[in-house]
Amino acid sequence: MGKLRVTVWNEFRHEKESETIRSVYPNGIHQAIGEGLGTTDFEISYATLDDPEHGLSEEKLQNTDVLIWWGHKAHGEVQDEIVNRVYDRVLHGMGLVVLHSGHFSKIFKKLMGTSCDLKWREAGEKERLWVVAPGHPIVEGIGEFFELEHEEMYGEHFDIPQPDELVLVSWFEGGNVFRSGCCYSRGQGKIFYFRPGHETHPTYYNENVRTVIRNAAKWAAPTTRDYPKYGKAATPLEPIKGYNG
Amino acid sequence: MGKLRVTVWNEFRHEKESETIRSVYPNGIHQAIGEGLGTTDFEISYATLDDPEHGLSEEKLQNTDVLIWWGHKAHGEVQDEIVNRVYDRVLHGMGLVVLHSGHFSKIFKKLMGTSCDLKWREAGEKERLWVVAPGHPIVEGIGEFFELEHEEMYGEHFDIPQPDELVLVSWFEGGNVFRSGCCYSRGQGKIFYFRPGHETHPTYYNENVRTVIRNAAKWAAPTTRDYPKYGKAATPLEPIKGYNG
Amino acid sequence: MGKLRVTVWNEFRHEKESETIRSVYPNGIHQAIGEGLGTTDFEISYATLDDPEHGLSEEKLQNTDVLIWWGHKAHGEVQDEIVNRVYDRVLHGMGLVVLHSGHFSKIFKKLMGTSCDLKWREAGEKERLWVVAPGHPIVEGIGEFFELEHEEMYGEHFDIPQPDELVLVSWFEGGNVFRSGCCYSRGQGKIFYFRPGHETHPTYYNENVRTVIRNAAKWAAPTTRDYPKYGKAATPLEPIKGYNG
Amino acid sequence: MGKLRVTVWNEFRHEKESETIRSVYPNGIHQAIGEGLGTTDFEISYATLDDPEHGLSEEKLQNTDVLIWWGHKAHGEVQDEIVNRVYDRVLHGMGLVVLHSGHFSKIFKKLMGTSCDLKWREAGEKERLWVVAPGHPIVEGIGEFFELEHEEMYGEHFDIPQPDELVLVSWFEGGNVFRSGCCYSRGQGKIFYFRPGHETHPTYYNENVRTVIRNAAKWAAPTTRDYPKYGKAATPLEPIKGYNG
Prior knowledge:
The structure is a homotetramer.
Chain A: E1 4-10, H1 14-17, H2 19-24, H3 29-37, E2 42-48, H4 58-62, E3 66-70, H5 80-91, E4 95-99, H6 106-112, E5 119-131, E6 145-155, E7 165-172, E8 177-186, E9 189-194, H7 207-219, E10 231-232
Parallel strand pairs in A: 1-2, 1-3, 3-4, 4-9
Antiparallel strand pairs in A: 5-6, 5-7, 7-8, 8-9
């Protein structure tokens, strides 16, 4: 089996506009994420909002096994046509890992069917992520919990469909909890939402965060099978009394 | 507790255009569904595609506890604005029962986040619906299975998210199976998809079908609680070290 | 519909042995729970460990719609024969609400198929229970969260099967989280696990706790249908080629 | 990563007692299953009921990543001590693939928490297994459905907890349906129940059946992480007001 082809998509605006954020992620959040994946198991490429077609041409997506998505302040600028293209690829099997503020991206909301709204607070508070599904491959190599000293808070109620599998739950210093690692399938594709990663904190350098993203990319890898045949199935598989269709 | 306010929505085109179908449902599919609900527990009203605002004004929806939806050939004519209005009401708690070809309605696809595609065949074949969740309130009063002598076939793969609860599975004479009774929650709202009901068959006069729809309407009844507060939650519930927000 | 017949089962040892605990629950935890249910919708009776057959005769269980279970220090004294009797009734439709340290009862472990182990700490710390399923009938009448000033801590990992529906998640002052409100179905029966209720704290007088237990009892009410027929089904429903069974 | 260590457990009584069955599986069902797994990805060993400790010594289980289980007529002869040993290993991460009549094994019932009862009929009828989770790794390499010309029928209601993931649904010639491929997690272990495999039919030579079992073994592979720490956690992770524990 060859390497998994991962495309890391980043809005890449904060890093250009704010020196503070640039100092945390000098090459952009996407590069920090890609660096964390490493090249042993992955063939990594990047795409950003301001690339032509947001870097997500039909060809690019056809050659992507797993797409990682970070966006925040410019969700509205992502063209519907590209959203629909990504959506179609997910239903056909491409994995999707949605990070942090990507909860409000068009693609995540379209796949979830809910508002994906939540509570939030920027107080640089402590977050402790607890493993609630200890046998799940996404938390392999993670202890019973891990901590992020300073993060933005996301709190319940998080308006998502009940996850197919809930893997992580966050405790926040300020008194909130959050379902932080959520697995879904849509069509032939697998989707993982992972909470951490505010742009002002060095979260994507954290080894536990990197392990989770690496595991999630592997978990979300497509299976190789034909897309189901939908539509008219006139010829029955078994005889039907009185029917000669 | 007063009666549940149920609005039955029907596309209501087949019945006008085809004498054959009109002979099955002379007053429209919606009336047959409403008649099956009965007025003991429900206060029933009707809405159809060709009514102003498709019969689904803001006021009408605010006064609807559970919306039942039957549509087929004119999904594309349902205005996006009305779809968004129904969507918003579901997230705020209104129940939604989607019947048969409503699987391809805009509102169901929007709430599911998938294509909702399936296999189908019009061969008037036998369908046998098996109860796979015998403790579920939606199948109260139903035996181990029930049969419909002649129905359109819907077959797997049915491209829906994994149901929160799977209640019924259909066996078809022609060799197919189908997940025929599927429960979901979205926001504060409950959604039930129920397969049977092709326009050429007298399915909505069937006592078992009526029992399931009646139970589903009760199951999908809204709970009475405030909509969650989303967005900025600047004031923490607990002190955060170094934060005076 | 008549009143729901609820039996509240309590180990009833702590209250007899400790004056401190007796001062919190002078008539036993069961009485405080029953008082919280009220008699408007429920016909309440009580059963305790030291009653003959632990108060759970075959007849008693046949006349119980929902059983509420509180146990802690004497799980081992509950006879296997009675456990099997309760188990059988749950599979046949009786609802079961398991409270707090009941997580380690024989009946809960038998129904879950896991160790039901967890982390715990008696530090009288603050617990805040967040609603994560805002449309669920079990949290009707509850705000976005509610607090218990002093409770025993139960922390993840909680070794249970993934709940069919997760309704509440607890935040603890000492840094832990817990899945505090978990729905399951087993056979025809519905089971709700609800975390709070350490014997040294007046938790079962708390109005929010009482509301949840009241709602849970209603949610767990049996449906009225025949038990499925299992075993040999020699006569096919459809003809089988070459078979004349 | 080395090869996955799979132990195939077989009751191995039918094959000894019946010449008909022996003619189908001359070396026992276990050997046919093992042959289907192949040695490319697996290191295979065998264990049977009449071996000392049923072939499942503590050491053997410690060196088993995934256990495959076929049993039928002698479930009662499996010693409780061995059942508990297997159970403990599953909670600690060992995968378990339960085949066909293994639905009534002590170990499966203990892990499910239900009766695991079902309808059955030996009429040698046709079974068609439909994929309902097309992106799931367990059905990689399988078409939209596959057929077994002659099999025992298992029909709903199948008294299992709702699967975490439902992968396959069977259509039977005689008019029944069945949830034929069911995923669960228990503790750190993953469990897959797979329906086909009556002892009188050459089902375990079928290429699709073999593919599913091979995929299931890989899917059920343990993750490598420490078992969670349960029990007293006296020292809080965060300061608790008024507590110096």
